[in-house]
Amino acid sequence: METSLKISFQGGDTSEALRQMIAEHVDALERLHGRLTACHVAIKVPDKRHRTGGPFVAHIHMTLPGGIDINVDHTPQDDGRFSSPQFAVNDAFRRAKRLIKEHVHRQRGEVKTLRERIERTLDRPPEP
Q: What domains can you pick out in the chain, each with its CATH number?
């Protein structure tokens, strides 16, 4: 990565275990794509003053070569699994991995268009 990984915790204390987990996820994404230009991960810690506590939220902003931005800004709605910071981080990186794969497929021209699907459908003989 051209710039160092940035990890910020908003509304709470830092966690070395989460930092390590995030670094491992970023390394895995670099192996998948080849190279990341920059990556910033922001973890929003729920406010402990409220009874429910609320969910942990992980936002990821990555830049790929060529100035291509990948943003994961998913905010969970009423999902108890997000009360775990590990789950929130894993979910955000799963989404980031999917977005990078989609970008790579588009870049390689491996994405099927609606026109191709229609033409294939029209070329088929009618079913009896």
A: 6-123 (3.30.160.100)
The Cα–Cα gap between 115 and 121 comes to: 10
Residue type, 25: H
Residues 17-45 pLDDT 10s: 999 999 999 999 888 777 788 999 999 88
Render pLDDT for 42-53 as a digit per residue (tens, 0 to 9): 998 887 655 456
Question: Do residues 70 and 97 make contact, with C-beta atoms less than 8 angstroms apart?
Answer: no
53 φ/ψ sector (left φ>0, alpha ψ -120 to 50, else beta):
left
What one-letter code names the amino acid at 15?
S
Angle at 71 between CA 29 and CA 83, to 5 degrees: 85
Inter-helix orientation angle 85-108/16-33, to 10°? 10
